[in-house]
Design brief:
11 helices, 3 strands, globular, Four Helix Bundle (Hemerythrin (Met), subunit A), single chain, mainly alpha, Arc Repressor Mutant, subunit A
Length: 234
């Protein structure tokens, strides 16, 4: 059966190259588990689904391979990878290290830039809160990512966000498995509110403490996630 049979066709933006759009679409499907670990991805089926040639499909799959989200077996198959806990822990370490430094920068921003950042984070938090009632996991996950991206951009280190994203496929999938658990969505929003409140006060130590609490949340449940999804995790 075609792995994408239940996935809506992608409408390509003809002003952009196809390969990055296919990569973004497939990455989102993998992280959201619409394409589960072990799913075989056939170039011909993907090309038919997206209505394009196999060349951009190949390029997109190579990028996914670089992020370890697929395992590529030359002349055989491309398979959605299992979640590598070691890789997830390394990406968590990287992200925590970078974002702790970013918070120092944000709390030292000049008042006009600081005020604009606080305004944008408040707007993002409103989106997160709206995603809780009723619960919209996909919307909350996107808003969660956007909240952190705002901080990178305000600190003028946007390329580091791209670096973190490239390394975060495994931890992103762990978070997605943990996100629907009872109380987890509310804790995410609560943590973001604590980070925002501390940044608004320019209280760097409190912001760092809130960030550590936020980023450690999923890792505290790794054993439970492994128990529930043993076939997806290595």
């Amino acid at each position: 059966m075609n792995a994408l049979a239940k996935v809506a066709p992608l409408k390509l933006d003809r002003t952009r190259q196809s390969a990055p759009q296919v990569f973004e679409a497939l990455r989102a499907l993998i992280v959201s588990f619409q394409l589960e670990p072990g799913t075989v991805l056939q170039r011909a089926e993907l090309a038919d689904h997206f209505g394009i040639s196999q060349t951009p499909i190949r390029d997109a799959l190579l990028r996914l391979g670089e992020e370890q989200l697929v395992d590529i077996f030359p002349q055989h198959a491309t398979v959605v990878s299992r979640i590598d806990l070691s890789a997830a822990l390394q990406s968590h370490f990287l992200r925590r290290s970078i974002e702790l430094e970013i918070l120092q920068v944000l709390c030292g921003l000049p008042d006009p830039e600081h005020g604009e950042l606080v305004r944008r984070l408040h707007a993002n938090l409103a989106v997160q809160e709206a995603a809780l009632q009723p619960l919209d996991v996909a919307r909350l996950a996107l808003a969660d990512q956007a909240f952190h991206q705002e901080m990178y951009e305000a600190a003028k280190v946007r390329p580091l966000w791209s670096l973190v994203q490239k390394q975060s496929g495994h931890i992103d999938r762990l978070r997605r498995l943990n996100l629907p658990d009872e109380g987890k969505p509310q804790s995410i929003v609560r943590d973001h509110r604590a980070i925002l409140d501390a940044v608004a006060r320019k209280d760097a130590p409190a912001a760092e403490q809130a960030l550590r609490q936020h980023l450690s949340g999923t890792l505290a449940f790794v054993d439970d996630i492994k128990r529930r999804f043993p076939e997806w995790i290595v």
